[in-house]
């Protein structure tokens, strides 16, 4: 997702900011820009596209200033363009923002009523207007930020400077990460230590609703209500392997944190953020080899894909392990959005049960590696029986990718940890695109519904960054959680396969007893397992099955089970009946599974790490299962 870099010190801000932004390119972006205070006035340079375009514009620009901010943007509100690129400027206020302002429509209407000149389509510019209005009254940037913070709802990290205070930066966050780097008579701010590690090894990590006020080389930290707080300085001594891991203790933790970027990359080829529509890109049902997909005419290929979808009467989803659970989520999506019956099969069972594959069947296979032996055998058998095949893989030109008729990609980047994380969430994002595309192609979804679903999907990467804040929570809770003798994971609807995935992660990593169930099945046997040493992990976002899920949870709690629940927002009911309650942002049911799985990944990771196990390479397991 978006990357932020700021600098205040004696060096050339341009060089440091651009260098830092290069380190953040892995987050994904479509435009970039810098704003540097130069002799009392801000010089702002922005460009659509990659950093090279910005560097070309900056090549002959000279700056005499010592303070500046920079940004790489991935579009959420407003299409990718120079007009929508950061930094945003409003009456001497310069601002960069990562995340999403959920109440931006209310703010925009209020500002327009006041006569504000809004020059972009972004939610970010609106924050600059709010701060500019406040600074007109307070004449103090820190107080202006303090007065603005409570007006914002959403997940955001923001860095701001003001021409009238040429030696001050103010940073604040509520969700996406933001760190302050401390150097010799210089201060840095960034989304990720990776951007700054070449300049300093001393960092302060901002927590939610904390504010950093930087004046000269002095940094002070405050709570949202203005009270000073003491922050711990963390000194990082990275070795080459840690640099490769970007400072994370394990590849798996790094990959968990890469999920917002991975989901953004997964949907980017297929979603138009300006029209909020889906058109699957370069699927290749016309028979082109994988190597030629990029040469396809997108409109012609999409027309062919729509023609295939119109003729489909049944879908089989074939996969193994974590990919199978993603497929189960896909069943709910495709059946409800495209009105096509879907069967989900474990590949090793599908190929040996002599399945009946009727005409006009689409067989969808999911494999991160594209080499999974049972899944490969299943796709070959389906082709022999006359089915149309479509693959979702992370590795282009893998065997499954080459053998399928149509091709979709997770686009999650290399996944080193054996236990899949970002490939799983990327797959669910791609399945959202597929279900929406099928629904529209088959004429069972109207334009308004498509726009609503796409808006929800585009908001997910920013929402994921907020959910990642549970990392510290589980790190602290792991020593208590490991004392349970077992874990029962439960959920309904799309939360049911998420419960199964959560249980699988705990088995894979921590070697603990864990089972995933449909919550409605509790009284059909599993209730017998529950006592005070059994943890109940209930995935219960607010959706049409919420009340029934709560009823199932009460049954489990009455038998003595200790409850860990995941719900939507500040849910007092769940909080009151849970030992641990974890809140996800409000989200459409089609995407809630992408958010609810993150706490389960973090819980498994920290339990395994606390027990001293090798998180990246669990015993007896391999990343790619290429034999039966």
TrEMBL record:
Descriptive protein name: Glutamine--fructose-6-phosphate aminotransferase [isomerizing]
Summary of subunit composition and partner proteins: Homodimer.
Xref: SUPFAM superfamilies: N-terminal nucleophile aminohydrolases (Ntn hydrolases), SIS domain
Protein task: Catalyzes the first step in hexosamine metabolism, converting fructose-6P into glucosamine-6P using glutamine as a nitrogen source.
Entry keyword annotation includes Cell division: no
This enzyme's EC code(s): 2.6.1.16
CDD domains given in the database record: GFAT, SIS_GlmS_GlmD_1, SIS_GlmS_GlmD_2
Keyword field: Aminotransferase, Cytoplasm, Glutamine amidotransferase, Repeat, Transferase
Positions of the SIS domain: 305-444, 477-618
Catalysed reaction, written as an equation: D-fructose 6-phosphate + L-glutamine = D-glucosamine 6-phosphate + L-glutamate
Pfam families referenced in this protein's UniProt entry, alphabetically: GATase_6 (PF13522), SIS (PF01380)
Annotated catalytic residues: 2, 623
Source domain of life: Bacteria
GO BP of this protein: amino sugar biosynthetic process; carbohydrate metabolic process; fructose 6-phosphate metabolic process; protein N-linked glycosylation; UDP-N-acetylglucosamine metabolic process
Cellular compartments annotated: Cytoplasm
Glutamine amidotransferase type-2 domain sequence ranges: 2-217
GO cellular component: cytosol
Organism listed in the record: Bdellovibrio bacteriovorus
One Gene Ontology molecular-function label: carbohydrate derivative binding
